[in-house]
Design a protein that fits this description.
By secondary structure, the chain is of the alpha/beta class. The protein has two domains: 302 residues, Zn peptidases (Aminopeptidase, 3-Layer(aba) Sandwich), CATH 3.40.630; 139 residues, no CATH class. The strands form four sheets. It has a nine-stranded mixed beta sheet, with helices on both faces. A two-stranded antiparallel ribbon has the order 5-6. A two-stranded antiparallel sheet has the order 12-15. A hairpin with a 2-residue loop joins strand 9 and strand 10. The protein is globular, with a radius of gyration of 22 Å. The relative contact order is 0.15.
């Protein structure tokens, strides 16, 4: 398998496909390759749309790849667009790998439709935040699998989650690939177990596309590294234990989510891969130059930025709370994210103050994560707030308090977005590069598993 040739062949995508465009593309593929590709309905979304499983026939071992595990993550959908076309058209590749491939292009199609406002650009942090939607924890397909751990008990999966469970139970995949992506930073990986032969190629593949590894702070303090920018798969049990260790009496009451698809697939021995891809990067995301700022101070500064931002939003929310009339997904998400920020913020602050590894100087990458990437992600809460208020207004809420709050929050989003963009030497990453890294990493993993 010539991975570099595959990398060179990836088209220069200019925009993300909508849900309807992806569905039409799948049907065209099956019409073009009826002896290889097939579609079947395996479930329904919450709004009643069919969930289709696209299967490409091959060998006796099953691979299961699904996109859009969070609906603000369309990079993986484009990866499936390319990979399904390639597998159908390249007999040698399909035969060499020896898998039967199963795909769901977007497992949370309902939520993804709420993100389509930024899919065609312009690709800026502010436009992304303005059109952003990510569900509350208990509405995330990826994190509502059954669990029974200490005081955390849940067995009420979403319809889309039940669909994933059904497919996993039926095909028992040797290789499972949940196509997540981040927002701002560099490339990093999660794997379900140590896989040392893959580390070098994982580090090399982003270079083929001019992308950087993310060498800053991990997205969660519980992330355990196998190698640079390669972590053991996150599990809700790890998060529970982290909260419990740092003073949360009953983590189950505040977590707001249950188990992941990776945890569910453990019973079949599935090897699980996640490649986190950003939309935007900046030269400092992998700069290992040491600064004069202690890592502990940098992380705490980032937490303070987050806390002050949350306080402003909470104050604005308190003003409109009695005048809100709709239970929108934007409202539920914003409320949940603020709650999670409080819970994890206090536990993480205790970890930072007690961990020996935070005493050393911070690298430029770590400092950038704490001081700038934090601000990027806080823009997203402002975007949710604006969309919540827009939904109220569109629904007929003419209360002056709602109108005034909308003006204030929209103005803050525009101001903070413009300020952040002006302070950064950021770029919007080419979609072909993002698709390329996920495609090549997935194929490299599939080939590696054939040898183990």
């Amino acid at each position: 398998m010539d991975l570099q040739q595959i990398a060179a062949d990836i088209p220069d995508y200019q925009a993300f496909l909508s849900i309807d465009e992806m569905t039409a593309s799948s049907h065209r593929l099956v019409e073009q390759y009826p002896d290889i590709a097939s579609l079947k309905v395996v479930g329904e979304t919450r709004r009643g749309d069919p969930i289709e499983l696209l299967t490409i026939a091959g060998g006796p071992v099953n691979a299961f790849i699904f996109g859009g595990p969070h609906p603000n993550e369309p990079i993986g959908c484009m990866t499936i667009e390319y990979l399904t076309q390639r597998l159908c058209s390249d007999d040698n590749l399909r035969q060499e790998l020896g898998y039967t491939w199963h795909f769901i292009k977007s497992i949370d199609a309902d939520g993804m439709r709420l993100n389509e406002g930024w899919f065609k650009g312009p690709f800026t942090p502010t436009n992304y935040a303005t059109n952003f939607y990510r569900p509350a924890g208990n509405e995330q397909v990826e994190w509502t699998f059954p669990i029974d751990y200490k005081t955390l008990h849940s067995n009420d999966p979403l319809p889309e989650t039940r669909t994933l469970m059904k497919v996993i139970d039926e095909i028992k995949p040797r290789f499972m690939y949940s196509l997540h992506n981040a927002g701002f930073g560099g490339v990093y990986y999660y794997v379900s177990q140590a896989c040392e032969p893959l580390y070098d190629i994982f580090h090399t593949i982003p270079e083929w596309f001019g992308l950087a590894l993310d060498m800053g702070e991990p997205e969660m303090t519980v992330a355990a590294p196998f190698a640079a920018a390669i972590y053991r798969m996150l599990a809700s049990t790890d998060m529970y234990d982290h909260l419990e260790r740092f003073g949360v009496p009953d983590p189950a009451k505040v977590m707001g989510f249950s188990a992941s698809s990776a945890q569910y697939a453990e019973k079949y021995g599935s090897f699980f891969l996640v490649v986190e891809m950003p939309y935007f990067d900046e030269p400092r995301v992998n700069d290992q130059t040491l600064t004069t700022t202690p890592r502990r101070d940098a992380i705490l500064q980032g937490m303070d930025i987050q806390k002050q931002h949350d306080i402003w939003i909470k104050n604005q929310l308190s003003v409109v709370a009695n005048d809100l009339t709709l239970d929108t997904p934007f409202r539920r998400a914003l409320t949940d994210f603020l709650k999670m920020s409080d819970t994890y913020g206090e536990a993480d602050r205790q970890w930072v103050m007690s961990a020996e590894e935070t005493k050393r100087p911070a690298s430029q990458a770590e400092l950038f994560s704490s001081l700038y990437v934090t601000r990027f992600y806080k823009l997203l809460n402002l975007g949710l707030f604006v969309r919540m208020l827009e939904a109220e207004i569109a629904g007929g809420n003419t209360n002056q308090t709602i109108q005034q709050a909308h003006e204030a929050v929209a103005a803050r989003l525009k101001e903070e977005g413009s300020t952040l963009e002006a302070e950064l030497n950021y770029r919007a990453l080419p979609i072909r590069s993002l698709v390329g890294v996920q495609t090549c990493a997935g194929l490299a993993t599939a080939a590696y598993l054939n040898k183990t």
